[in-house]
Amino acid sequence: MRKTSEKIPDGKRITIGLVILFCLWALFSVFSQKEEITVYTSRASKQKYGDLVKAVENVRGAKVNVKTFDTLFKKTSQEQQIKPTVRNTRSDENLTLESLLNGGAPDVVIDRLLSFDGKLPAELLISLKKALSGNKISEVKKLFIELAEKTDSKKVLGEIAFQQCIVARDKYQYNEAFEYCQDAIKYAPKNAIYLVANGDITYKLKNYNKALVYHEQALSIFTSTLGVDTPYVAEMKMYIASSLSSLGKVEKAIELNEQALVGNIKNYGKNHWLVAETYKRLGIEWLMFGDFKKATDYLAKSLTLYLELFGENNRMVGQIYYWQGTLYSKLAESKKALAYYNYALAIYKKQVPIEDPGFVYQYQNVGIAMQNIGEYEKALGVFKQGLALEARYRGRNSLIFGLLHNNIGACWRKLNKPDKSIFHQKKALAIAMEFCAGDPCLLLVSVNSEFGGAYFALEKFDMAISYYEKALIEGRKYFGENHIKVGVIYYNIATILVDMKEYQKAEKYSKKALTICMNTLGVAHPITRQIKKSHINIGSRITAIRTQ
Q: How far apart are CA 464 and CA 455, in angstroms?
C-alpha cells in the first residue's frame, strides 16, 4: 500500500522559502561585496550632497549612505564608543579634497575605517580611537598592524595604509608617511585620493617633480570619472600649480590657479576658504614673477577673506602675514617686512605645535629682516634659535641648516668679524656640497657670495673675486641671467674691481648689474638707484684717467 504524501502547512512553507532566500542573499553578498561609506549630516543639509555623493561613489567605487546625526544614537553601546563625533563643520566642507586629506584626528580615522562595515573588529577600533586620543603613537602603530592582520581585502588594507600615512604626516614624520602612502597606492593604484596624498607628502619632501606626477594622475582620474566641472578638478589644479611654481614654472602655475579661482567661486561662492587660499597662492606666484602690484592685491584679498572667516589668530592669517613680509622685503621696505614676519611668528606660536618644521622658516625670515635693518646681533640670536629647532626637525645636514649657517656668517661679516663669518660659511659649504651634488642650488649661490664678502672685508681681493665668480656661475644656473640676485653679484664684483683700480673691468660688471636691476626692479627701486650711482662714478673715474 502506497504512502500518501503529507501536505506541508503554509506557515512552514513560507519559513523554508525565507531560509532559502537568505542563503542565496548571503552567497551573493560574499561574491559582490562593495565598500560602503556613511556620511553624517543634519536633516537640513542632507539634500545638499547630491552630485558630490555621486562623485565619491564613482571615484571610490563605493556606495555612499547619507544619514542624519540622530541615527547615531540608535546604535549599540559598543558601536557608540567608536561612532563619529558630531563636528562643528559646514556640510559642504565634508567632501572637499582638503577635508578628505585632513585626517589624523581620532574621529576622522575611525569614521573612515568604519566605512568598511563588518570587516574590522570593533574592539580594535575602540582601542585605536583611545590610543589616538591619548597620542600614544607606539600603541597606534601596533594597533594599525593588528587591524591589517585581520583582513585580506585590498580595499581595507589600502585604507589602513592611507590612515597610517595621514597620522604620520600630522606628526611631521614625512619619510614614514611616504612609506605608508606608497603602500596605499600599491593596494589601490587607481584611488585618486591616495594619489593626492602621495603627491602631498612628496611635495612636503621637496620632490616636486614626483608630486607633479601623482597630482596629474589624480586629476586625470577625477576628470575622466566626474567631468571637468567637478569641485575636485579645481582643487587639483591648485595642487599641480604649487609643484609647477616650486619648479620655477610660475606663469603656468598662475594660469592654473586663475582657472581654479573661477571653479572655486562657482562651486562654493565668493566667501569660501578655498577662494581665500587661491587668492593667497596667486599672490605668492605674482610675487615670484616680480609683479608686486598684483601680488599686493591678491594677498590683500586673501587676508580680508581669511580674517572674515577665521579671525586674527588663525594659522592661515599667519601665512598671509609671512608672505606680506616677503613682499615688503623684496620692495626693500625692511621695517615693514620685519613687522609682518613678527606678526606671522606670533600667530605661529599660538596656533602651531612646536614640532611643525615651518617654525624654522619663520625664525629665518625674522632674522633676515633684522639683518636688513642693521640689527645684526638680534638677528644672530634668532638664527641660532632656528639652528636649534632645525637640528631637532631634520638634523644638521639639511638645506635650511646650511642656509642658517650662511646667514649667521653674513651677520658676523657685517659685525666686522670676517674670521667668524668664514667659520660658519665653511660649515654651510660642506652641507651645500653634499646636499646639492652638482645640481643648481640656492645654498651654493649664497655660500660663495658670503665667502666673497668675507674675503673682501679681509682685503684678499683675488680670493673674493674667485668666490663671487663661483657664485655667479651657480646663480645663473639656479636663477637664470636676468634675476636680481645675479645682478647683485655682478655689482659686488664691480665694487671689488674698483678697489683694485681695474675700472674698465668694473664698468662691464656694473653695466650688467644695472641692466638686470632696471629690468627686474624698475628705475625707482633703491637698489637700482644705488647701482646706477656707482656705475656713473665708475664712468667718471675712467673719464678722469683718460683726460690726464
A: 5
